[in-house]
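ok trying again, last paste got cut off:
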Amino acid sequence: MRVLMPDGMAAAADPILEILKKYKTVAVVGLSSNPARPSYEVTQYMQSAGYKIIPVNPNEKEVLREKSYARLEDVPEKIEIVDIFRRAEDVPPVVESAIRVGAKVVWMQLGIANAGAAERARSAGLIVAEDACILVEHRKRVKQLG
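nice, full thing came through this time. structure:
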């Protein structure tokens, strides 16, 4: 796991804890309605933990009782975290969309890292988490999160 902070933003002792405390609206890019997929399990957990979930997948109409959108730019509400379940090579356009919609955090799930896209997001003022599962990181801090 790697966490990058934008210039001028001091890193907290535990930046992941700070992200999970501060930001509660999560757009999940690549979320599948198939319960066997990791994206479904992770997102279902985050939803049950009280996070507002916004599915972003052009192949889905609804996931976990939430309307799905084709692109981040189609989401009518403010997005705080963009959680990415896509191949590393598919991350750069998602990062560009995250920047356009004013997201605060780009989170690349476990096994996903793209140094160029991460640096682009960081230099645009976003916090970046790479190669980390948001479910695993939340569970590690569940007591601190209350």
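cool. The mean pLDDT is 97. The radius of gyration is 14 Å.
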